[in-house]
């Protein structure tokens, strides 16, 4: 399951070169050990992590001592430890504690190790596992030869670890228009029919998709089967429900699934969900929201609801 859930390094990867450079610099040149890649679902956090760990400098420093943990498979401390023991190929003796075997290995490591906890929001927000997962992560971080990368939904890294963050205060930003267009064309391939109108049509579509990497990839997949003009009609009619591939939706194959996953993981329901629904109708968000949101929705427990939505990265705070 771990092997099949571990993705390959993405072939199409546009507009993230500077973020990769920053991540490599943090792990290799600055001598810092903890890198957090944060933000909403569909922003390409995993792709960014993969390009960082397979860069020349990171491979030179860590070599085969680089371990990738797809955390969507693990819901608590025990299963995370079992995953680490498996990917590190540690030998278990009879009646031995898995945690002891893991910590002994980290203690006796001869070279630097890098552990990538991908999609860490799953164990971090599952049931009552937060305390145990936090303790495990911080114990691992205490070993001087261990470096960590964590990717997760939300604006903050987990635990009381001095994470170096990529991106801005909201996490990994969306793509800029030019690399977004390059990515769309690369995903669409030679099936994309270029005409006098197609360039402006692509620009308009990408603007409406808000340059979100997952949305760009999934929309471009349709161009292999339908003309660009038809794709734009599909978007106008069906919106995010057409941003999917295959029959079994997943976090990497459906924008709607990715959004629903955030709602589920962060338990967004009731009045919090109603607030998100209201905000989603406002194309420019709520200017000076601290002042005006209480006037728009009087009498609600806004601080808690807003905090929950910010934690999920389904909304973000930028320039007031």
UniProtKB/TrEMBL annotation:
Residues 12-153 form the Novel STAND NTPase domain. It holds the Pfam family nSTAND1. This is Novel STAND NTPase 1 domain-containing protein. It comes from Dendrothele bispora (strain CBS 962.96). The lineage of its organism: Eukaryota, Fungi, Dikarya, Basidiomycota, Agaricomycotina.
């Amino acid at each position: 399951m771990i092997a099949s859930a571990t993705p390959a390094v993405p072939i199409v990867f546009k507009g993230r070169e500077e973020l990769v450079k920053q991540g490599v610099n943090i792990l290799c040149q600055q001598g810092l050990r903890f890198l957090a890649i944060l933000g909403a679902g569909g922003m390409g956090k995993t792709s960014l992590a993969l390009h960082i760990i397979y860069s020349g400098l990171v491979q030179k420093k860590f070599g085969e001592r680089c371990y990738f943990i797809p955390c969507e498979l693990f819901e608590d401390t025990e299963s995370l430890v079992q995953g680490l023991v498996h990917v590190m190929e540690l030998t278990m003796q009879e009646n031995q504690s898995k945690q002891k075997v893991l910590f002994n290995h980290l203690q006796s490591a001869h070279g630097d190790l890098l552990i990538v906890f991908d999609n860490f929001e799953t164990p971090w927000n599952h049931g009552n596992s937060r305390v145990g997962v936090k303790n495990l992560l911080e114990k691992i971080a205490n070993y001087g030869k261990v470096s960590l990368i964590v990717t997760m939904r939300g604006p903050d890294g987990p635990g009381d670890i001095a994470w170096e963050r990529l991106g801005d205060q909201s996490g990994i930003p969306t793509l800029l228009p030019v690399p977004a267009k390059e990515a769309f064309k690369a995903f669409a391939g030679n099936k994309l029919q270029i005409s006098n109108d197609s360039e402006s049509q692509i620009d308009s579509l990408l603007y409406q998709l808000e340059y979100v990497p997952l949305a760009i990839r999934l929309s471009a997949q349709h161009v292999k089967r339908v003309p660009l003009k038809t794709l734009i009609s599909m978007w106008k009619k069906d919106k995010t429900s057409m941003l999917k591939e295959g029959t079994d939706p997943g976090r990497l194959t459906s924008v709607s699934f990715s959004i629903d996953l955030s709602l589920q993981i962060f338990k967004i329901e009731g009045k919090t969900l109603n607030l998100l629904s209201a905000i989603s109708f406002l194309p420019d968000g709520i200017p000076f929201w601290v002042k005006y949101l209480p006037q728009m929705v009087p009498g609600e427990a806004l601080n808690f609801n807003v905090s929950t939505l910010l934690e999920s990265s389904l909304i973000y705070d930028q320039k007031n």
